[in-house]
Amino acid sequence: MSGDPLWSVFVNACLINNFVLAYFLGICPFLGVSGKLATATRMGGAVTFVMLVSSICAYGINLGLAALDAPYLRLISFIAVIASTVQLVEMFIKKVSPTLFRALGIFLPLITTNCAILGLALFQTNKGYGFAQCIVYALGAGTGFTLALALMAGLREKLELANTPDVVKGTALSLMLAGILSISFMGFAGLGG
Amino acid sequence: MAGLPSHEDTPGTDEFIKGLWRDNPVFVQVLGMCPALAVSNTARNALAMGLATLFVLLMSNVVISSLRRFVPREVRIATYILIIATFVTIVDYVIQAISLDLHRALGAFISLIVVNCLILGRAEAFASKNTVGRSALDALGMGLGFTTALLSLGAVREILGGGTLFGLPLFHDAFQPWVVMILPSGGFFTLAGWLLLFNALAERRERRATLAAEALR
Protein backbone atom coordinates (compact mmCIF):
# COMPACT_ATOMS: atom_id res chain seq x y z
CA MET A 1 0.00 0.00 0.00
CA SER A 2 1.33 3.38 -0.98
CA GLY A 3 1.93 5.80 1.88
CA ASP A 4 1.57 9.15 0.09
CA PRO A 5 -0.07 11.85 2.23
CA LEU A 6 -3.56 12.85 1.09
CA TRP A 7 -2.68 16.42 0.02
CA SER A 8 0.09 15.10 -2.19
CA VAL A 9 -2.33 12.62 -3.83
CA PHE A 10 -4.75 15.47 -4.51
CA VAL A 11 -2.19 17.91 -5.94
CA ASN A 12 -0.67 15.13 -8.01
CA ALA A 13 -3.97 14.11 -9.61
CA CYS A 14 -5.24 17.65 -10.06
CA LEU A 15 -2.23 19.62 -11.27
CA ILE A 16 1.04 17.74 -11.76
CA ASN A 17 -0.37 14.75 -13.60
CA ASN A 18 -3.54 16.40 -14.85
CA PHE A 19 -5.63 13.68 -16.46
CA VAL A 20 -6.33 15.64 -19.62
CA LEU A 21 -3.12 17.55 -20.17
CA ALA A 22 -0.53 15.03 -18.98
CA TYR A 23 -2.16 11.63 -19.40
CA PHE A 24 -4.34 12.43 -22.44
CA LEU A 25 -7.40 10.89 -20.81
CA GLY A 26 -10.82 12.24 -21.70
CA ILE A 27 -9.73 14.09 -24.82
CA CYS A 28 -13.06 13.54 -26.63
CA PRO A 29 -15.24 15.51 -24.17
CA PHE A 30 -12.32 17.92 -23.70
CA LEU A 31 -12.51 18.87 -27.39
CA GLY A 32 -16.25 18.30 -27.76
CA VAL A 33 -17.86 20.10 -24.80
CA SER A 34 -15.36 22.91 -24.27
CA GLY A 35 -17.18 25.40 -26.52
CA LYS A 36 -19.04 27.20 -23.73
CA LEU A 37 -17.86 27.88 -20.19
CA ALA A 38 -21.18 27.03 -18.48
CA THR A 39 -21.56 23.65 -20.19
CA ALA A 40 -17.91 22.86 -19.55
CA THR A 41 -18.14 23.34 -15.78
CA ARG A 42 -21.34 21.27 -15.54
CA MET A 43 -19.80 18.50 -17.60
CA GLY A 44 -16.83 18.64 -15.22
CA GLY A 45 -19.23 18.26 -12.28
CA ALA A 46 -20.93 15.23 -13.82
CA VAL A 47 -17.58 13.58 -14.61
CA THR A 48 -16.28 14.27 -11.09
CA PHE A 49 -19.36 12.62 -9.60
CA VAL A 50 -19.08 9.54 -11.81
CA MET A 51 -15.36 9.37 -10.98
CA LEU A 52 -16.07 9.46 -7.25
CA VAL A 53 -18.72 6.71 -7.39
CA SER A 54 -16.77 4.46 -9.74
CA SER A 55 -13.59 4.93 -7.70
CA ILE A 56 -15.36 3.68 -4.57
CA CYS A 57 -16.89 0.77 -6.54
CA ALA A 58 -13.53 -0.07 -8.10
CA TYR A 59 -11.99 -0.24 -4.63
CA GLY A 60 -14.68 -2.70 -3.55
CA ILE A 61 -14.33 -4.77 -6.73
CA ASN A 62 -10.59 -5.03 -6.18
CA LEU A 63 -11.10 -6.41 -2.69
CA GLY A 64 -13.64 -8.90 -4.02
CA LEU A 65 -11.48 -10.02 -6.94
CA ALA A 66 -8.45 -10.36 -4.68
CA ALA A 67 -10.50 -12.67 -2.45
CA LEU A 68 -11.62 -14.68 -5.50
CA ASP A 69 -8.11 -14.66 -6.99
CA ALA A 70 -9.48 -13.64 -10.41
CA PRO A 71 -7.59 -10.54 -11.62
CA TYR A 72 -8.49 -11.25 -15.27
CA LEU A 73 -12.08 -10.23 -14.52
CA ARG A 74 -10.98 -6.76 -13.39
CA LEU A 75 -11.39 -4.89 -16.66
CA ILE A 76 -14.80 -6.39 -17.42
CA SER A 77 -16.21 -5.68 -13.96
CA PHE A 78 -14.84 -2.10 -13.94
CA ILE A 79 -16.46 -1.26 -17.24
CA ALA A 80 -19.78 -2.83 -16.20
CA VAL A 81 -19.85 -0.75 -13.00
CA ILE A 82 -18.95 2.45 -14.84
CA ALA A 83 -21.65 1.89 -17.46
CA SER A 84 -24.33 1.44 -14.81
CA THR A 85 -23.14 4.48 -12.81
CA VAL A 86 -23.37 6.63 -15.92
CA GLN A 87 -26.89 5.35 -16.55
CA LEU A 88 -27.79 6.37 -12.99
CA VAL A 89 -26.33 9.86 -13.35
CA GLU A 90 -28.12 10.27 -16.68
CA MET A 91 -31.51 9.49 -15.12
CA PHE A 92 -30.73 11.77 -12.16
CA ILE A 93 -29.79 14.77 -14.33
CA LYS A 94 -32.77 14.22 -16.62
CA LYS A 95 -35.06 14.41 -13.57
CA VAL A 96 -33.35 17.33 -11.81
CA SER A 97 -32.36 19.62 -14.68
CA PRO A 98 -33.75 18.95 -18.17
CA THR A 99 -31.91 22.01 -19.55
CA LEU A 100 -28.55 20.65 -18.47
CA PHE A 101 -29.58 17.27 -19.86
CA ARG A 102 -30.19 18.83 -23.28
CA ALA A 103 -27.00 20.93 -23.15
CA LEU A 104 -24.82 17.90 -22.47
CA GLY A 105 -26.59 15.90 -25.16
CA ILE A 106 -24.73 12.93 -26.57
CA PHE A 107 -21.73 13.56 -24.33
CA LEU A 108 -23.59 12.36 -21.24
CA PRO A 109 -23.90 8.67 -22.28
CA LEU A 110 -20.43 9.01 -23.77
CA ILE A 111 -19.02 9.45 -20.24
CA THR A 112 -19.07 5.63 -20.26
CA THR A 113 -16.40 5.63 -22.92
CA ASN A 114 -14.55 8.50 -21.24
CA CYS A 115 -11.13 7.00 -20.70
CA ALA A 116 -10.52 9.30 -17.73
CA ILE A 117 -12.93 7.28 -15.60
CA LEU A 118 -11.66 3.82 -16.47
CA GLY A 119 -8.13 5.24 -16.31
CA LEU A 120 -8.77 6.48 -12.78
CA ALA A 121 -9.99 3.04 -11.68
CA LEU A 122 -6.94 1.35 -13.24
CA PHE A 123 -4.37 3.86 -11.93
CA GLN A 124 -5.64 3.72 -8.35
CA THR A 125 -5.35 -0.08 -8.53
CA ASN A 126 -1.83 0.07 -9.95
CA LYS A 127 -0.73 2.57 -7.30
CA GLY A 128 -2.23 0.46 -4.52
CA TYR A 129 -4.10 3.34 -2.88
CA GLY A 130 -6.08 2.80 0.31
CA PHE A 131 -9.74 3.78 0.68
CA ALA A 132 -9.23 7.40 1.78
CA GLN A 133 -6.53 7.88 -0.85
CA CYS A 134 -8.88 6.56 -3.54
CA ILE A 135 -11.54 9.11 -2.67
CA VAL A 136 -9.05 11.98 -2.60
CA TYR A 137 -7.51 10.76 -5.87
CA ALA A 138 -10.93 10.71 -7.56
CA LEU A 139 -11.74 14.21 -6.25
CA GLY A 140 -8.36 15.52 -7.44
CA ALA A 141 -8.71 13.97 -10.88
CA GLY A 142 -12.25 15.33 -11.23
CA THR A 143 -11.16 18.81 -10.16
CA GLY A 144 -8.25 18.67 -12.59
CA PHE A 145 -10.56 17.59 -15.41
CA THR A 146 -13.02 20.41 -14.62
CA LEU A 147 -10.17 22.91 -14.41
CA ALA A 148 -8.74 21.90 -17.78
CA LEU A 149 -12.18 21.94 -19.39
CA ALA A 150 -13.04 25.37 -17.95
CA LEU A 151 -9.69 26.90 -18.97
CA MET A 152 -10.10 25.53 -22.48
CA ALA A 153 -13.68 26.80 -22.74
CA GLY A 154 -12.62 30.27 -21.59
CA LEU A 155 -9.89 30.41 -24.22
CA ARG A 156 -12.18 29.15 -26.96
CA GLU A 157 -14.87 31.72 -26.13
CA LYS A 158 -12.24 34.43 -26.68
CA LEU A 159 -11.03 32.82 -29.89
CA GLU A 160 -14.53 32.90 -31.39
CA LEU A 161 -14.04 36.64 -31.79
CA ALA A 162 -10.46 36.46 -33.04
CA ASN A 163 -9.54 36.64 -36.68
CA THR A 164 -7.95 33.29 -37.56
CA PRO A 165 -7.10 31.81 -40.97
CA ASP A 166 -9.58 29.27 -42.34
CA VAL A 167 -7.04 26.43 -42.36
CA VAL A 168 -6.56 26.35 -38.58
CA LYS A 169 -10.23 26.60 -37.61
CA GLY A 170 -11.74 23.70 -35.67
CA THR A 171 -9.84 20.82 -34.14
CA ALA A 172 -6.34 21.92 -35.19
CA LEU A 173 -6.68 25.20 -33.31
CA SER A 174 -8.10 23.47 -30.21
CA LEU A 175 -5.18 21.03 -30.22
CA MET A 176 -2.63 23.84 -30.40
CA LEU A 177 -4.36 25.54 -27.46
CA ALA A 178 -4.28 22.25 -25.54
CA GLY A 179 -0.56 21.94 -26.27
CA ILE A 180 0.15 25.40 -24.86
CA LEU A 181 -2.03 24.68 -21.80
CA SER A 182 -0.14 21.43 -21.33
CA ILE A 183 3.20 23.26 -21.38
CA SER A 184 1.99 25.69 -18.75
CA PHE A 185 0.78 22.81 -16.56
CA MET A 186 4.30 21.41 -16.66
CA GLY A 187 5.20 24.35 -14.45
CA PHE A 188 3.44 22.53 -11.59
CA ALA A 189 5.94 19.67 -11.76
CA GLY A 190 7.91 21.03 -8.80
CA LEU A 191 4.88 20.95 -6.48
CA GLY A 192 4.29 18.01 -4.14
CA GLY A 193 6.61 15.15 -3.38
CA MET B 1 -21.89 8.39 -36.53
CA ALA B 2 -25.30 6.76 -36.76
CA GLY B 3 -26.01 8.96 -39.78
CA LEU B 4 -23.36 7.29 -41.93
CA PRO B 5 -24.91 5.55 -44.91
CA SER B 6 -24.27 1.82 -45.13
CA HIS B 7 -22.46 0.93 -48.34
CA GLU B 8 -24.45 -2.14 -49.30
CA ASP B 9 -23.93 -1.63 -53.03
CA THR B 10 -20.21 -0.78 -53.02
CA PRO B 11 -17.51 -3.39 -53.64
CA GLY B 12 -15.79 -4.92 -50.61
CA THR B 13 -12.45 -3.32 -51.41
CA ASP B 14 -14.02 0.08 -50.79
CA GLU B 15 -14.73 -0.85 -47.15
CA PHE B 16 -11.04 -1.58 -46.81
CA ILE B 17 -9.71 1.53 -48.57
CA LYS B 18 -11.95 4.09 -46.88
CA GLY B 19 -10.45 3.52 -43.43
CA LEU B 20 -6.96 4.03 -44.76
CA TRP B 21 -7.48 7.42 -46.32
CA ARG B 22 -10.89 9.03 -46.89
CA ASP B 23 -12.31 8.24 -43.44
CA ASN B 24 -9.02 7.88 -41.59
CA PRO B 25 -10.06 7.47 -37.94
CA VAL B 26 -7.47 9.82 -36.44
CA PHE B 27 -6.84 12.48 -39.08
CA VAL B 28 -10.33 12.80 -40.57
CA GLN B 29 -12.84 11.53 -38.00
CA VAL B 30 -10.72 12.57 -34.97
CA LEU B 31 -11.68 9.42 -33.03
CA GLY B 32 -9.60 7.46 -30.56
CA MET B 33 -7.48 10.45 -29.66
CA CYS B 34 -6.53 9.41 -26.15
CA PRO B 35 -4.30 6.44 -27.05
CA ALA B 36 -3.20 8.18 -30.25
CA LEU B 37 -1.67 11.01 -28.24
CA ALA B 38 -0.62 9.16 -25.12
CA VAL B 39 1.51 6.31 -26.46
CA SER B 40 2.85 7.91 -29.64
CA ASN B 41 6.04 9.19 -27.99
CA THR B 42 8.14 6.60 -29.83
CA ALA B 43 7.51 4.81 -33.13
CA ARG B 44 7.76 1.38 -31.48
CA ASN B 45 5.08 2.11 -28.86
CA ALA B 46 2.86 3.63 -31.53
CA LEU B 47 3.19 0.56 -33.76
CA ALA B 48 2.46 -1.84 -30.90
CA MET B 49 -0.58 0.16 -29.82
CA GLY B 50 -1.84 0.32 -33.41
CA LEU B 51 -1.52 -3.44 -33.90
CA ALA B 52 -3.20 -4.19 -30.55
CA THR B 53 -6.11 -1.94 -31.51
CA LEU B 54 -6.27 -3.54 -34.96
CA PHE B 55 -6.60 -7.00 -33.39
CA VAL B 56 -9.31 -5.95 -30.93
CA LEU B 57 -11.19 -4.09 -33.67
CA LEU B 58 -11.05 -7.04 -36.06
CA MET B 59 -12.11 -9.67 -33.52
CA SER B 60 -14.89 -7.59 -31.96
CA ASN B 61 -16.25 -6.54 -35.37
CA VAL B 62 -16.38 -10.17 -36.50
CA VAL B 63 -18.05 -11.41 -33.31
CA ILE B 64 -20.51 -8.52 -33.14
CA SER B 65 -21.55 -8.83 -36.75
CA SER B 66 -22.05 -12.59 -36.46
CA LEU B 67 -24.22 -12.04 -33.36
CA ARG B 68 -26.10 -9.08 -34.80
CA ARG B 69 -29.41 -10.97 -35.17
CA PHE B 70 -29.38 -12.28 -31.58
CA VAL B 71 -28.56 -9.14 -29.58
CA PRO B 72 -31.64 -7.16 -28.43
CA ARG B 73 -31.47 -3.46 -29.30
CA GLU B 74 -31.85 -2.25 -25.71
CA VAL B 75 -28.76 -3.97 -24.34
CA ARG B 76 -26.57 -3.77 -27.45
CA ILE B 77 -24.06 -1.21 -26.14
CA ALA B 78 -23.48 -3.19 -22.94
CA THR B 79 -23.04 -6.37 -24.99
CA TYR B 80 -20.56 -4.69 -27.33
CA ILE B 81 -18.52 -3.35 -24.42
CA LEU B 82 -18.36 -6.79 -22.79
CA ILE B 83 -17.21 -8.39 -26.07
CA ILE B 84 -14.59 -5.68 -26.57
CA ALA B 85 -13.40 -5.97 -22.94
CA THR B 86 -12.91 -9.72 -23.39
CA PHE B 87 -10.60 -9.25 -26.38
CA VAL B 88 -8.73 -6.42 -24.67
CA THR B 89 -8.04 -8.69 -21.69
CA ILE B 90 -6.63 -11.28 -24.13
CA VAL B 91 -4.39 -8.67 -25.79
CA ASP B 92 -3.23 -7.42 -22.39
CA TYR B 93 -2.02 -10.90 -21.37
CA VAL B 94 -0.50 -11.64 -24.80
CA ILE B 95 1.59 -8.44 -24.78
CA GLN B 96 2.70 -9.22 -21.23
CA ALA B 97 3.86 -12.64 -22.44
CA ILE B 98 5.69 -11.30 -25.53
CA SER B 99 7.55 -8.36 -24.02
CA LEU B 100 7.40 -7.16 -20.45
CA ASP B 101 9.24 -3.97 -21.46
CA LEU B 102 6.58 -3.06 -23.99
CA HIS B 103 3.85 -3.85 -21.46
CA ARG B 104 5.44 -1.47 -19.00
CA ALA B 105 5.84 1.28 -21.62
CA LEU B 106 2.20 1.10 -22.72
CA GLY B 107 0.98 0.72 -19.13
CA ALA B 108 -2.73 1.20 -18.51
CA PHE B 109 -3.30 2.27 -22.10
CA ILE B 110 -3.65 -1.34 -23.24
CA SER B 111 -6.61 -1.78 -20.90
CA LEU B 112 -7.91 1.58 -22.06
CA ILE B 113 -8.44 0.19 -25.58
CA VAL B 114 -11.85 -0.81 -24.18
CA VAL B 115 -12.97 2.80 -24.14
CA ASN B 116 -11.47 3.71 -27.51
CA CYS B 117 -14.42 5.41 -29.20
CA LEU B 118 -13.20 4.10 -32.57
CA ILE B 119 -13.97 0.47 -31.69
CA LEU B 120 -17.40 1.08 -30.18
CA GLY B 121 -18.11 3.47 -33.05
CA ARG B 122 -17.37 0.84 -35.72
CA ALA B 123 -19.38 -1.76 -33.79
CA GLU B 124 -22.40 0.51 -33.62
CA ALA B 125 -22.16 2.16 -37.05
CA PHE B 126 -20.95 -0.77 -39.15
CA ALA B 127 -20.65 -4.25 -37.63
CA SER B 128 -24.18 -4.25 -36.21
CA LYS B 129 -25.63 -3.73 -39.71
CA ASN B 130 -23.34 -5.58 -42.12
CA THR B 131 -22.20 -9.11 -42.95
CA VAL B 132 -19.23 -10.76 -41.27
CA GLY B 133 -16.97 -10.46 -44.33
CA ARG B 134 -17.69 -6.79 -44.83
CA SER B 135 -17.23 -6.05 -41.14
CA ALA B 136 -13.87 -7.81 -41.15
CA LEU B 137 -12.73 -5.75 -44.16
CA ASP B 138 -13.99 -2.57 -42.52
CA ALA B 139 -12.13 -3.42 -39.31
CA LEU B 140 -8.92 -4.19 -41.22
CA GLY B 141 -9.10 -0.89 -43.09
CA MET B 142 -9.93 1.20 -40.03
CA GLY B 143 -7.34 -0.63 -37.91
CA LEU B 144 -4.60 -0.15 -40.50
CA GLY B 145 -5.62 3.50 -40.90
CA PHE B 146 -5.36 3.91 -37.13
CA THR B 147 -1.98 2.17 -37.05
CA THR B 148 -0.63 4.33 -39.89
CA ALA B 149 -1.82 7.49 -38.17
CA LEU B 150 -0.28 6.44 -34.87
CA LEU B 151 2.96 5.52 -36.59
CA SER B 152 3.17 8.88 -38.38
CA LEU B 153 2.60 10.68 -35.07
CA GLY B 154 5.10 8.47 -33.26
CA ALA B 155 7.76 8.77 -35.97
CA VAL B 156 7.61 12.58 -36.03
CA ARG B 157 7.76 12.78 -32.24
CA GLU B 158 10.62 10.30 -31.94
CA ILE B 159 12.70 11.86 -34.72
CA LEU B 160 12.33 15.41 -33.41
CA GLY B 161 12.29 14.57 -29.71
CA GLY B 162 15.04 11.99 -29.55
CA GLY B 163 16.81 12.06 -32.91
CA THR B 164 16.08 8.35 -33.38
CA LEU B 165 13.64 6.15 -35.30
CA PHE B 166 12.74 2.72 -33.84
CA GLY B 167 15.71 3.28 -31.53
CA LEU B 168 18.22 3.82 -34.38
CA PRO B 169 20.12 7.13 -34.22
CA LEU B 170 19.48 9.28 -37.30
CA PHE B 171 21.54 12.41 -36.79
CA HIS B 172 25.04 13.55 -35.98
CA ASP B 173 25.92 13.86 -32.29
CA ALA B 174 25.53 17.62 -32.49
CA PHE B 175 21.73 17.26 -32.93
CA GLN B 176 19.85 18.91 -30.10
CA PRO B 177 16.67 16.90 -29.42
CA TRP B 178 13.47 18.90 -28.95
CA VAL B 179 12.52 17.45 -25.60
CA VAL B 180 9.09 19.08 -25.77
CA MET B 181 8.05 16.69 -28.55
CA ILE B 182 8.31 13.64 -26.25
CA LEU B 183 6.46 15.44 -23.46
CA PRO B 184 2.63 15.48 -23.50
CA SER B 185 2.41 18.91 -25.15
CA GLY B 186 4.41 17.58 -28.12
CA GLY B 187 1.60 15.11 -28.81
CA PHE B 188 -0.92 17.91 -29.12
CA PHE B 189 1.37 19.96 -31.37
CA THR B 190 2.24 17.05 -33.68
CA LEU B 191 -1.40 16.08 -34.15
CA ALA B 192 -2.31 19.73 -34.74
CA GLY B 193 0.42 19.86 -37.39
CA TRP B 194 -0.90 16.78 -39.20
CA LEU B 195 -4.47 18.11 -39.06
CA LEU B 196 -3.25 21.42 -40.52
CA LEU B 197 -1.63 19.53 -43.38
CA PHE B 198 -4.85 17.58 -44.05
CA ASN B 199 -6.94 20.78 -43.85
CA ALA B 200 -4.61 22.55 -46.27
CA LEU B 201 -4.78 19.63 -48.73
CA ALA B 202 -8.59 19.53 -48.54
CA GLU B 203 -8.77 23.27 -49.09
CA ARG B 204 -6.47 23.12 -52.11
CA ARG B 205 -8.55 20.30 -53.62
CA GLU B 206 -11.71 22.34 -53.12
CA ARG B 207 -10.16 25.43 -54.72
CA ARG B 208 -9.02 23.38 -57.73
CA ALA B 209 -12.50 21.90 -58.09
CA THR B 210 -14.14 25.34 -58.12
CA LEU B 211 -11.51 26.62 -60.59
CA ALA B 212 -12.17 23.65 -62.87
CA ALA B 213 -15.92 24.20 -62.62
CA GLU B 214 -15.49 27.86 -63.56
CA ALA B 215 -13.23 26.98 -66.49
CA LEU B 216 -15.89 24.64 -67.84
CA ARG B 217 -18.53 27.32 -67.78
Describe the overall structure.
The complex is a heterodimer of chains A (193) and B (217). Chain A has one domain. Chain A is built from eight helices and no strands. The model of chain A has no long low-confidence stretch (mean pLDDT 82). With 217 residues, chain B is an all-alpha fold. Chain B has a domain of 144 residues. Chain B has a two-stranded antiparallel ribbon. Chain B is flat. The N terminus of chain B is likely disordered. Chains A and B meet through helix 2, helix 4, helix 6 and helix 8 of A and helix 2, helix 4 and helix 8 of B.
Topology, please?
The complex is a heterodimer of chains A (about 190) and B (about 220).
Chain A: H1 6-16, H2 27-32, H3 37-68, H4 74-96, H5 98-104, H6 115-127, H7 131-161, H8 171-185
Helix pairs in contact in A: 1-7, 3-4, 3-6, 3-7, 4-5, 4-6, 7-8
Chain B: H1 12-20, H2 33-38, H3 43-66, H4 76-98, H5 100-106, H6 117-127, H7 132-162, E1 164-165, E2 168-169, H8 184-216
Antiparallel strand pairs in B: 1-2
Helix-strand topology string of chain B: HHHHHHHEEH
Order of SSEs of chain A, N→C? HHHHHHHH
Helix content of chain B: 55-70%
Q: Pick out the low-confidence regions of chain A.
A: none
- The oligomeric state is heterodimer
Number of helices of chain B: 8
As a percent range, the share of strand residues of chain B is: under 5%
Instruction: State the major sheet of chain B.
Output: 2 strands, antiparallel
Q: What distance lies between the first and last C-alpha atoms of chain B, to the nearest angstrom? A: 37 Å
The best one-word shape of chain A is: globular
The percent range for strand residues of chain A is under 5%
The low-confidence runs of chain B, each spanning 5 or more residues with pLDDT under 50, are 1-8
Main sheet of chain A?
none
Strand order of the largest sheet of chain B: 1-2
